[in-house]
Write a structure and sequence with these properties.
alpha+beta; 70 residues; 2 strands; two-stranded antiparallel ribbon; single chain
């Protein structure tokens, strides 16, 4: 387990492949910016299946987490 709570396997290579699949843009708002997050759609940090991962900009990523926590 990493210090951020993600299981091994959530690698830079995997995140790069997710960003490439999503056209290096946020799938929620379409923005392409320097830093794009890779988000676990089901909210489970242990599920690194390719179809469970999606590219989000920082703003949409924060909104997504705030919806789940609010």
């Amino acid at each position: 387990r990493s210090k951020c709570g993600y299981r091994l396997g959530f690698t830079d290579y995997l995140k790069r492949k997710v960003r490439e699949r999503d056209g290096k843009k946020c799938v929620a708002c379409g923005v392409s910016e320097r830093y794009l997050c890779v988000h676990h759609k089901d909210g489970k940090r242990v599920n690194h299946r390719f179809d469970n991962l999606v590219t989000l900009c920082m703003s949409c990523h924060m909104k997504t987490h705030n919806r789940h926590n609010g």
